[in-house]
Amino acid sequence: MLSVLLFLPATAFALQMNEIMYDLPGSDGGREWVEVWQDGTDCANLTQWKFFEANTNHGITLKQGDPAVCSGGYAVIADDADKFLLDNVGYSGNLFDSSFSLSNTGETLALKNPDGNITDSVSYSGAWGAAGNGKSLERSASGWFESLSNSTPGALNSLSQSSQAQNQSQPQQTEQSQNQNSAQNAEQAVSQEQSYQEPVSQPSQPSQSDINPSSDYSPLIDFSIIGRSNHVPPGSSIEAVLSARSSYLADRNVVFCTYVTAVSDEACQNVELAPDEPVELRFYNTLKANVSGNLTLVAELRDGISVRQKTASLDVLSVSKPSEAKTGVAGPTAAFAAKNSDWLSQFIGWLGGLFSFR
To answer: Where are the domains of the chain?
Structure first.
């Protein structure tokens, strides 16, 4: 099955997901949608395709426009097309109706062609952003990011618009992420529907799209470990202090985590970074009780496309309680007697003389 999928012509089914609106402000029942974009040269009749979500192959029906999405064209697959039109007054593009409910924490989505083969998939996470703030998740050549502005159904993504404006005013050289074979990723993600799993924190690498590769913004977020507990006993809580700053063009929602490799819990915070506004974050990790020695504190930035790490050394002391040897009489009476032995001797002698007199 996998070998057949890998050798499909590259332009046969280049339809791919391009924007995901999974968590709208307020009640989002029936208001969720996914935008698709035709990257190939052929046309795809969406009414013959399936939208895979929640371990289910959902049918797709035409609401308005053309059933075929051709080269460079967009279309929206809505959970409820009528509610979509109420939210997006004036939308005149290709619109399709389906039946699904996108998870606000994340799940795996896929497109299946008329032959039932997976042509594109993504395992998104709520930690990537666009959680109830009116924005969407947009695809770029290097991954999925929160949109710069509100959603853009049926139009060029806001990330692409910003990238094009940057390239016109100040061309810059960027690194293009290495893309894994998207067909192989899709096969691994959902080829066996009965063994569906919750998505992990790392997104699948997308195939090349219309978005300029310069939209890889992860190097524009800098962070470091500026403080930490040290020389601590096992079983205690480690405090780690991080400093972070973003040079991204708009607010960026990312996740920072700290842990001590294999010997502590993991502490994470979801942080919204404003452009060029440094933040200071504090984390507390509890060490296991049976560890000591030189260890490594790890801080991670998880920005929805990659994981970047910073490390610092940590000295965990080996503490043992000295044995408490018991000698002689114990307790407060013995302590009193030892401290006041002379006075007691005189008092006992006086008592003896008193009884002798009687």
So the answer is: 2-215, 218-316
pTM over 0.90: no
Amino acid identity of residue 215, one-letter, is S
The per-residue pLDDT for range 248-290, each reduced to its tens digit, is 777 888 889 998 877 878 889 989 888 888 999 999 988 888 8
Q: For 84, phi and psi rounded to 5 degrees?
A: -60, -45
Q: Which tokens sit at 35?
A: 């935008």
Q: What whole-number distance in Å separates Cα of residue 316 and Cα of residue 166? A: 48
Residue type, 267: A
Q: Report residue 139: phi and psi, to 5°.
A: -90, 140
| Contact between residue 214 and residue 247 where contact means Cβ atoms under 8 Å apart | no
Domain 218-316 bears CATH identifier 1.10.3720.10 = no
Q: Are 145 and 305 in contact (CB under 8 A)?
A: yes
Helix (H, G, I), strand (E, B) or coil at 355: helix
Instruction: Give the dihedral of Cα atoms 75, 76, 80, 86; nearest 10 deg.
Output: -100
Q: Give the residue from 312, 304, 309 showing the smallest Cα distance to 272.
A: 304
β partners of residue 140:
143
Q: Give the type of residue at 122.
A: V
Token pair, residue 303, equals 């920005």
